[in-house]
Amino acid sequence: MDFMASYGIALIVIIVAVAVIYIISNSSNDLFQQSCTGYSGFSCSSMFLDSNGVLTLTISQATGGQILINGAACASTASTNGDMPEYGNTGVFNSLYYYPNSEFANGVFINTGSSAKLTLYCYGSSGVAVSQTTSAQYVGYIWLNYTIVNTNIKTTQLIAAINAQYT
Hints:
Blueprint: H1 2-26, H2 28-31, E1 35-38, E2 42-49, E3 54-61, E4 67-75, E5 108-110, E6 115-124, E7 127-128, E8 137-148, E9 153-165
Parallel strand pairs: 4-6
Antiparallel strand pairs: 1-9, 2-3, 3-6, 4-5, 4-8, 6-7, 8-9
């Protein structure tokens, strides 16, 4: 009887350990904290990065006036002087090649205190971030090419840093 009890307890311990490992491995997506940190007059939220490298992001602005976004870029590395992405949409153009849909064809207007959803490809050193596993991590930056509508001042600016997980 003592022999069977000790083997029974050992079997229960093994089953519990396997169950805990299984639960942790299936919930690892919940353990990763995604973040988007906005810079100087911009904030971001509702970030989603799919396995094909398509980033969907909601940005808000508080620059003091309405802006017209002419282009956006997402890259894992900045150029040597930091003002443009190193890979992908290096000029932060509105060419539809850099976006999965046509939202930038006529630009995107955002009023101060308002937000807009943007969808764009994120690039890494090997090109478009494609074929990533759903648990892989992407660290990168967002640039906007925009015009302040009332002043006609046009600028390209680094507006956010992201830490995302492919889903």
